[in-house]
Records
---
Amino acid sequence: MKLPLSWLKDYTDIEGISNKEYDARLTMSGSKVECVEYLGEEINNVVTGEILSVEKHPDSDHLVICQINVDKEEPIQIVTGAPNVTEQSVGEICPVCLHKSTLPGGVKITKGKLRGVVSNGMMCSFQELGLDHGCVPYACDNGILFLPKGTPVGVDIKAVLGLDEYVAEFEITSNRPDCLSVIGLARETAATFNRPLSVKTPVVKGCGENINNYVSVRVDEPELCPRYTARIVKNIKIEPSPAWLRERLFAAGVRPINNIVDITNYVMLEYGQPMHAFDYACLSDGKIVVRRPKSGETIQTLDGQDRAITDEMLAICDGSKPVAIAGVMGGANSEITDNTKTVVFESACFHGTTVRLTAKALGMRTEASGRFEKGLDPSLTLPALERACELVEMLGAGEVIDGIVDVCSADLTPKTMPFEPEKINALLGTDLSAETQKEYLERLAFKVEGDEVIIPSFRIDIERMCDLAEEVARIYGYDNIPVRLYAGDTTQGGLSSRQILERMVGDVCLSAGFDESMSHSFISPKFYDLINLPVDDKRRISTTILNPLGEDFSVMRTTVLPSMLSSLAHNHAHRNPTASLYELGTVYTPVLKEDGTVDADTLPNEEKILTIGTYGKFTFFQLKGLIEAICKKLNIKNISFTADTENPSYHTGRCAKVYSGETLLGTFGTIHPVVAKKYGFNTEVLAAELTMNSLFTCADPVKLYQPLPKFPASTRDIAVIVDDAITAADMQKAIEQAAGNILESVKLFDVYKGKGISEGKKSVAYSMSLRAADRTLKDEECDCAMQKAIKALEEKFGATLRS
Amino acid sequence: MKQQLETILSNAKNELSETQNARELDAVRVKYLGKKGELTAILKGMKNVAPEERPIIGQLVNDVRAELESALEKQGEIIEQAALAEKLKSEALDVTMPAEEIALGHKHPLSIVLDEVKDIFIGLGFQVAEGPEVEYDHYNFEALNIPKDHPARDTQDTFYISDNVVLRTQTSPVQVRVMENQKPPIRIIAPGRVFRSDAVDATHSPLFHQIEGLVVDKNITMSDLKGILELFAKRLYGEDTVVRFRPHHFPFTEPSAEMDIQCYQCHGEGCRLCKGEGWIEILGCGMVHPKVLEMCDIDPEVYSGYAFGIGLERTVMGRFKIDDIRLFYENDVRFLHQF
């Protein structure tokens, strides 16, 4: 909402208040001032001048040399090529940019020579002054702006054209439609600075006759139109509005059109009540019917568009057809034209939601609909209508027929609420006396009578004590409310055990040199193709967004893997030699209906997946080491790994599932080269996906101290030759089972294939660490354990001792 | 005899002082104290000494031996130290040569600040609550006093899954879920992802993070809201941070406010960062609307509370002077490694 401060001064006094103070105080009382702008900010050193003579330029066909009186001792000489400056222009008064002047858009004017003739500045057009044609209806479109006769010469152009004006731009919250008006903001201003507010009741003289002889109004949908008021004006003279009105509209950001349209806009800005003017001659049967459109009805709106309207909407109709879409826009069939003789002024209150939905359905949010949709005060229609008619008479734009049509089903009795100053203090933490609170409320047009507050009709947002508390607080000043740090019962803060575990997982990844990443929750369904998911893969069934920003953001991911690979690919594409990332990302698994389709009315399962990705640095077994480190940190026991040859996203020979006991914790391995290639890689990319729920289930928060060994360990190494297909895990298990409880640990330390080993075989070497808690082991005991291990390997895997 | 001993001692000391290394030192030791050494020879010759003189001479020999041994030890230390110094010298490194990188991982900047915020509130007795990101319309809107026909619900802002299910547009639905499941006193923050249908550019992202806060108990006032948020701002932005509370409107709080901090760049004078206003908006807050309490079966006549919501991305961008929100979701390591 743009508020010209000169307009504000019609209603309250802001004398002695600087713009900065105004801005700050209004912002702190709840009407946020975005900025206070000076309309003529960019226009400097431009004055009015009278053309004294126009001569041809000796060296140019299209340039002329003018002598211009700018009320200085000497006239100044200006060369111009403007088409409307001819010998007939002598005596015209126009804006003159003097030497070292500025115009909007950073334009600077200095003196110079045009084809050898000195020009001491420039005459300018209204466009160059940043004006709209509506501001200067007398101007020609193409050429110098000639001002009305009698304009004084040598004065600042800003004063002449209403640009010597400060305009405050407000950001008004949606609960305060009453503040989308000059009077509303004047009320807030007066309350904030504790100054008087003077709103006069409009006075309409009238010209006799009776409105009922002209028009009848019927409201078929009182729910959607609680109040409809109208007056009629005859003998209309359509002409431009006077300068003061045009200037105010322009300053408020509205284009001046003609006197009648301008009056409706002026009243809307001043009172916050949208108005509409119909050409009476276009209303068939002198009837106005407020009803839902019948099926198939259409209307051409003022913007020239043909609109299909439905019975979900509300239309203003005459005896036969719609002439306006209620609260949104008028129809072209009843538009005010230069030939309009009689006008119906409509000032009505329409149902906000209906107007909003209508405007949305038609894709035409207008200034009027934007106000109606927030909900307007039915008591406002009449004063606004009267103000419009007062302006008609003031401007001599027509004669107002006596009588008012007022179809009202709205309850106009003022709302009341109990006045509870103690409760207000209790909510705010203040200690304000009842008198002080009463005074604050009354500044805002509330009435406090005994223990009752009468709510002003325009405050549709006030429903409860807390609403009154806010009124008191903002006049008192939020900044004056005392500060208290802690009240109420003590509560035990902290992270949940799961949140602590998530931090621990992150800490392990960080200490291993992995960076934390974050990616979007919605992905393109094509991402599933990128990671090679088969067409019938369950993970392709995703929760789908009905109104996505585009296909790339259209489904909720069921796996973080493609996002992770995209992040790695971004790094790779930007020539980062290595990237190692982890993300604690949520996946969304939809709930399915019986027919296997997504049940979009039920929330999907949300689950966090620790997804790790790396290229250019770590190996498969280092990644495996990270997974083991995470398990160790979380005290997850009984870890085992099995090869996974089926996962379509991973290398068939380099992918493993990791378990704790029977619980699957996740999958990791080398990304399938075909997948990697789709992301632009021709080198190894590794990834891991671990389910946080499983990690949490298997984590054991209880860690107990194990006494440090008192006796030394002995080591025995075994090297055997086995079939290539025998896994390290199986062999290790066999050794562990065979060697008995003096085996402290067994470590694989060498695997060799090639020269000296037959094809299809491998040499595997283990180092056993043996120890007893209560004694130093004898050599025989150690040898015996080793022999048992060797025997087990021989029996189970046909291993032969490597000599 | 005595003189002989003194000569031995003085000769030995002289020779000792000449020694340069362990080998030479040992040679001196052998020469005087070895089996065939000069001092040993004197001891051996004791049998020729008159018996009555033997204790005196014996004492004398022992004194000389002790002194010699101590001199040997001292010289040994000197040699050892010289050798060590020599060794260290030979091992000297060009310390200006480049380091071998210890590649620690870097936490995401959003996590860095979020964890700080969590820790601040945990210290004030808050717990960290969570709620679903795909959320029922009821929790995201209706239970927050945003009925079906409210303008804030226009589809241009909200991603819909169905008529009843949306991607949450705010973390406020977690307030409702907590209040439904827990009776006061309630003190929680609820950080998380929220979604709005904003096209991606330098300052807009369809996905961003909010941190919701909620306190419900008896006798909670706006003073408490101001107290806790002012403390929070000082902890996050520094002790000299100046805050202001400005009236605003949210459907689920009344009275409502926005908290601004005085621009840390221009200190209120107005600059490009604060768009000339001198203040930077940090969060929205207010006293929980009684309708919201009622919908969660909490009696507003007995309990009151406050709530707040902080935009994480904006906070982090201000903190690290990051000018493009898209960087958060690209995961370029050159970006991540800066934090």
---
Amino acid sequence: MNLFLINILLAVGFMIALESFTLATLFTGMVVGYMALWLTRPLYGDDRYFQRFATIVRLVIFFIKALVISNLRVLRAVLAPSQISRPGIIRLPLDARTDMEIMLVANLISLTPGTLSIDVSEDRRNLYVHVMFLEDVDDARRELKEGLERRVLEVLR
Amino acid sequence: MIEWLAAVLLLLGCLFCLLAAVGLVRLPDTLTRMHAATKAGTLGAGLILGAVAVLFGDIGTVLRTFLVLIFLFMTVPVGAHLIGRAAYCSGIRLSSRTWVDHLREDLEGKDKSER
């Protein structure tokens, strides 16, 4: 996380050098600083910062996409509730182990429309998820595991 | 141009908030209602905040809308989870279209093994 701090300092320096304290300059400074750090990355020994940055960006993009798509599905269900919605509560075996990982996975699942985490089993190995559009249990499980959980774990580990 | 973008974001946000309200009335049980209420609401609020950020565009406003969004995204799922869990544990009737319930299976399985 040290490189992140340097990146911010570079961005602030960029703002001072240009004497322009706006959000756009800060953003440009972050991007320019990131590229400068990336060019000189053999100096820092570990490139975890760059890998982690990429996984965070992937998670955010994936999450926004999921948010919009499933909101549209909820919209359809609200307009015609009798036809589409086939809800169910499924057991999702967790790969996440620590409380932090489980919390993030459960919260992101809750945030995506169409899925709501109800409970965690006492041994913390299963998450119970209420799925609004459940066609096939295994498909839904795979979607949650490959999509959200894998990406969250990539960011945290 | 900026005004148009803000107007579109604002209208979309309002649409999703309306959708959340309609869903609260029309969906069959507490858990499906939670889906509509919390999530469409989050996206709706997010779009409206986005409209504000685009329209004002200065660093203070943008940072504040960003902060509001972060707090929303941190608190909404916790609330939704707890309401859903409380509803489930107090034994609400699930919609008749619910066709899988692993949580009930596991809870009942545990009851039997304890006896």
